[in-house]
Amino acid sequence: CGTSQYILPQTVSHGQYCVKPFECCVIVASHHQVAGLTLLAVGVYSARNTTAVAGRYIEARLGKPSLVRETSRITVGEAIKHPIKMAKRLKSKPQDALEGVVLSPSLEERVRDIAIATRNTRQNRGLYRNILMYGPPGTGKTLFAKKLAMHSGMDYAIMTGGDVAPMGRDGVTAMHKVFDWANTSRRGLLLFVDEADAFLRKRATEKISEDLRATLNAFLYRTGEQSNKFMMVLASNQPEQFDWAINDRIDEIVNFALPGLEERERLVRLYFDKYVLEPATGGRQRMKLAQFDYGQKCSEIAKRTEGMSGREISKLGVAWQAAAYSSEDGVLTEAMIDARVDDAVKQHLQKMDWLHGEGGEEAEAKSTAAPLAGGTGSGGKMGFNLPLSEAPQAEAVIAPALGINTKEEGKSIQQEVTPAPSDMKSAIPEKEEVCDDAVKAETQSLDQPAASTPSEDRMENEGKTVPSPQKDGTPV
After folding, report:
1. Which domain holds residue 310?
2. Considering the domain boundaries, does residue 367 fall inside one?
3. What is the CATH number of the domain that holds 186?
4. Same domain, yes or no: 209 and 91
5. Which of 18-32, 280-294, 336-350 has the lowest average pLDDT?
6. Is the N end or the C end of the chain the one with fewer CB atoms within 10 Å?
């Protein structure tokens, strides 16, 4: 190609012909371009696949699955956004499992044993035990699960059962991602499932969709054996709805009941210090507190808040703080505290009425309305009241549908039940026997008067006549 002479005939893709040096250089350059484009395509394809694989690996190791609402594990996004917070978390020491958690003495002793056993299990790389915590809302189940993970040096992840059903067909894949992500934890993971009864229902009796059933089966598959990588903690308000296979995977059952008088007083003092005393005595003096006996007031509030949960008492402390901030001078008085307690007690009673199927308006009507004439009436859970004066009428309407004949004699009602269909044949005599008995009865009635029965005598005393036998011989 460097000479200016014609070259000899050569084979260039299509037959033999002579080409000039310039044409030869063009053909060689075109072959180099094709090879370069091919190598570029291979590089792009390989880079894309490698990036996808690396992304999945990073997501499995550090990324948070879509079903996990909250976690203490360090993710890439949180490490970039909050580097100081992540550094403090890495240097943090194990905390007390019951710090800030107020429980009864017996329950406190039991959960402390669970916390110690979990911590020793992690240190010895043993198999974790699965726990079920049940009880009313706001009794400290979620708080204890977080404290348990921090005490044992584990990471925690919180997911809720209500997020599983809306995922549909993607629920199975999302569930497998959660457990794959849990198995990659070096410190061990405490997987806390709140409102677990939302998707762990009975497959035999409950009506659940096929997608939710498949997700439940995936959950059962991943929890069939105990693991040394993760620990499962379930929380539910209705544990009787669990599938039997879920109950078989539970090793420890803990009941978080409503706080008693002593626990309520500890909770009131705790939140009074947190939301009232600390802001009032702080450096900024954000609020002021009037002079009264704080300890005596907390004891009185504990007696008045019977039946309330720890969450309701904590909201009561927030209400005290809001009352001080809303006042003109920023002073929280004893009267303001009592007013907020009265409102909280009324709201709690209204919630209990809703829980037992009685509406707030019906309860208010019962307490304020005057009794009706003729009776107070009978109330129902559906809000339907039936006066007592209408009870006989209702019985008379319902009786024919039940096969009951009612006769009103004065103020009492006597019911005569008609014979069942199965007994009708035995109650009806044969035709020949009927005729013979009828003839004999008519003959005896001509000779002597018929003997009266006690019921007939009673009817005669009431002024009613006894029906006589028919002339055709048909028995009465």
Report:
1. 261-355
2. no
3. 3.40.50.300
4. yes
5. 18-32
6. C
